[in-house]
Amino acid sequence: MLFLSSLILSILSSLVVADSVTPESLAAQFSLSTSTSLPFPAATQASSDTVQSLTAWGLSKNRLQNGNDNIAFVDDPFPNSPAPGSTTNSSGPVLQVTYPAGSYSNGTGGAQFVNLWNSTQSGGFQSMLLSYEVAFDAGFNWVQGGKLPGLRGGADPTGCSGGEEADGIQCFSSRLMWRPNGEGEVYAYIPDSNNLCKDKNIICNSDFGDSISRGSFTLSAGQWNHVTLLVQMNNPPDTANGNIELYFNNVQALAQQNLQIRSASNLSINGLFFSTFFGGSDPSWATPDEQHTYFRNMQLWGGNTPSTLSGNKVSSGSRAVGSISVLAASLAVFALAW
Q1: Domain for residue 121, yes or no?
Q2: Does this model's pTM top 0.85?
Q3: Most buried residue, 7, 13, 165, 241, by CB count within 10 Å?
Q4: In a domain, 168, yes or no
Q5: Nearest 10 degrees: Cα torsion 229, 233, 234, 240
Q6: What's the domain count of the chain?
C-alpha cells in the first residue's frame, strides 16, 4: 500500500512538472528571439530617485504619466515567499507602488507609464511576451478590483484605457486585473469583432475594456506571484486570429484566440504598459486604507511573426478601417517619444 501511494505521488509530481511552462520556453516556442530585462538598482531608492531610474526603461515622453510620488525601490518584503513553482528568488530591491487611502483610478493612486521597447510601428514587433512577479501586502484588501501591468501598442500613448475606445487603428492594450478575493483576468481594449461579446469567456463593457476569462487564476497576498502574458497580433488585419495567453506561476491559465486586436497593418506592439491602480472610475472601487504592491524580474521577449492561427474574416458590421484614420495613426507615431 505504501509503495502504491508513493507511485501515485510520483506520477502526480511528473504531471505537474510536465504542465510547467517557463517564459524562456514560451519565447523559444513562439520564436521570440529578441529580449530585454528591465534594470533594477542595487540599492533602495526614494521616489524622486526611482522616477529618475525608471527613465532608463525607455518611457514614452521620457516620463511617468502619473504616480511619481507613489513609487519607490524598497527591500523585498517577502524574501522567503517565492512564487509557487519558481526556481529563482532575487535578493535586490523591488519596485513598490503605493495606493493611498481613498484612491481609485489612475489619477489618484498607483502609477502608470508606457515603455517604448519597440517605438517603430511599421514592421515592429508582431508578438510579445511579458513576464514579471507581483506581490501584494499581507492581508491585502482587494475591494472590487484594480489594474496590473500588461502590454500595449499603437501611436496613441494614452488611448485604449480609461474608457478610450479601441478601434484597432490607433492603439490596443492588454493589462491584467485583480477582482474580489484576488480573482484574476486579462483586461483588454480591443475591437469587439465577430460577436466577440457572445463568447462565454468574454465579459464586455461598452464604455471600458473587455474581461477575458475572469477567475481563471487567483492571486495570493503576502507572497510573490509569477505572471506571463503573450500577445500575438492578428494577421491579416481583417482576420480575427489574434491570440492572448496568460500563464500563472508557470501554468497556463487562459488562452483566447479568434481576436481582432488590430484593423490596420501598421499597428504593432510597443512594450510594457505599466498601469496599476484601484478601479474602476468611481469611489466604490477605492481602497479604504493605504496599500502596496511590489514588482520584480520584469522581462520582455519580442518577435516579428504575428499569429499564424486560423481565423474568420471580420464581418462587414465590424469597425472598418478609414484611410484618414490610418494616416492619423501614422503621423501620431512622432508623438510617442515626445
Answers
A1: yes
A2: yes
A3: 241
A4: yes
A5: 40
A6: 1
